[in-house]
């Protein structure tokens, strides 16, 4: 019988409980106990669910731990990247410790499309591959459903290995596989004490990696009811049961009392007890009465104004901006709320998700991505990832035929020599793409020569000017990364700084935090306002249309959305507010893709009736029925 990947050489301790019961505080207390016992800070590591949650946990520790005694706080995917970035790992795997940026991943998918598989089928296959990576599936042999799946998977993996890079979703799996094969190399990254918050939000590969990293003790905190995730890491909700089953001596500790205010605890209990989650209520251990209210506004615009008024009201009563969190139904709604707050002079801290985007087929729309690719070439003129990216810019087919020839060894790219074929290409398309790529590489070689000798912001600015990216939104990301790295930073250091920024989205500043419900994993706030909770924004319109979604698929979608609402509501220590609107002009309702319950003509205007979201039916008593 094969040993479970959850089997750990360390002692396993599981802390379980509902949201608001103090699981994160239990981890903080465990750190304090370990430090008091003389455990070196370097031998303690804490993993949070998301980079934003890691920042929040680190701030919590800084309040009680001297800076010199502060242990490392990070996420499992980021730590996996550190493992794979070591010289030993790069030498053994043949891949560099880096992930594909958004535009580089889109170019990878263009190469995979050359398999000839129908786009919809290909999309489903890729989702299956990514989830299987995260779930530690074997990924070989008879595991594939048919030859088509195996062919696409080989093409995907071959393209990644040629690029010497990783997809973000495969990092924990790759680090776990590497650690099992080369245990001696992993020893430098193992720690005596490994603590994991929101264990249920990590992928199976991440959960098993945490057990592999622990020498003496593994302490995990989990919330069985919060079946939702706030990161690109795929959640594995049953991981805690697998962990306990694989480690018979594991200790399970249950936190049975809520530390939220009494009224908020009652509201969270109502949400948890809904038939979709069916969790048992917990008693309250807090003396603060608190408040909870569902506030209805007439129209979308009035709700935005109302949210600003609610925030202003709490600020006027002494709350600090950073004590208030606004969880919006969608990114679009969050952006509108942040703009409305800033228009009233209220500091807002929306979740920052830096990225390098644009349409690779049109060079003018992805100038910042081109500038970053120049940085990669300045760091290594023969970098296969950068060479492939540079050749793909501005070409409708993204030079995919040539890229596949290069990945298979039938052709080679060089910054100085252009394109070289092992044999004369028979394809007219290949000859055409080779000529175009040679011209593009010659242009890049000239620019890289001009960048030689430059460092820090001077290097970034020169790359931006070379491709005319001053007005590109991504230029700010590149300049911010240069500031992080310092004026003497070399091209490789600047590339790493950009990657660090992209991999660490978070709430910037001390304003009112604004994001999606799942963005508040690991966060706490005195006041939580959940806004835009109407059918169509929270549950998509297709959920209510039997022609677009089968009835048997609805419960899973509703449960996921309910879990998000429940988990976010549990971040409110004292005050919890749900806001929604009851009608909207027909044109605006269509643009927002709302679930329209009835349309009336009022004073020459078509107005739609809108219901509060199904996810707060336990609070409002309003429910949608076919």
UniProtKB/TrEMBL annotation:
InterPro entries: DExx_box_DNA_helicase_dom_sf (IPR013986), P-loop_NTPase (IPR027417). Gene3D superfamilies: 1.10.10.160, P-loop containing nucleotide triphosphate hydrolases. GO terms for molecular function: ATP binding; helicase activity; hydrolase activity. Keywords: ATP-binding, Helicase, Hydrolase, Nucleotide-binding. It comes from the Bacteria. This is DNA helicase.
